[in-house]
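quick one
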Amino acid sequence: MNKLVILVLVSLLVSCHDTKPAEKQSYEWAMVLHGGAGYATDLGVELEQSYASILTAALKQGETILKNGGTSEDCVVEVISMLEDSPLFNSGKGAVFTHDGQNELDASIMRGGDMEAGAVAGVRTIRNPIKAAREVMNNSKHVMLTARGAEQFATLQKLDIVDSSYFFTQQNYDRLQDILAKEKETGMVDEEHPDSKFGTVGVVALDKSGNITAGTSTGGMTNKKYDRVGDSPIIGAGTYANNATCGVSCTGHGEYFIRYNVAADVSKRMEYLGESVDVAAQQIIHQTLEEAGGKGGLIALDTDGNVTMPFNTTAMFRGYIRPDTLVTRLYD
Ligand code: ASP
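structure w/ aspartic acid:
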């Protein structure tokens, strides 16, 4: 064989190898999180650094749990509790104000192995609503408890109960005052559209045993009235998990996420249509919701640890961690 023939044969072999479909990746553990969706394009260097560093710290906390064989349930509760304790997010300590000047918090959790779930809505004195959601899931016959009943239950479960003033932050209070002043001036009464704010938090984790858990925690929307409840504590709307498909946590204009049953729809599309987690999630956020005028995003991961984080606003605080990588992003 002359040199030219050998060269052609070698290059044919190489090109055959290149066109082989990529091996399907499967990760031992994985975690994805969000810190809310909105319309910011430039938060300033200092704030951007604060968000990037707390997102990184949260991902590393999750990594420690999952790498050492901890459960996805523990990971979701621990990481969300950490974000709830930060005033940077609209959940726990940083919750926004209602029209009446209260902070009313919602949270939910779902475990994909046995499809058990728990949620609390409209609570004012539970320091970490995600812990209360877990107690509802594990230690009650119910899925959702609301308001004072949920607080009573959390007290019985010996969770940390705080005075409602714990949730006060000047920035969120000032935002409510601005909106109330605008309402007075224009005579128009409306909740704040989630077009400038961030902060609902969500985590989805896959542990070494193949169990997926998803959780979401929020203060809802500034100036909400009449004990309004959004999608975050509603299983199937803001949170969903099924070990056979994926786990999902949503953020955005809750009324749309409730009506379009967004979190469960990602899982159902995978189940009924055979779509990947990414295709299903992109379709819902960029087509179904976009066409309806619903704004926001979601995070999801499947049983192999594949992650997706689509949103149809200009920004969504988000990130994921797996044995091979750590990623955080704020904008597009
Ligand atoms: N989805 C939340 C709600 O409607 C708000 C948000 O995610 O920003 O209550």
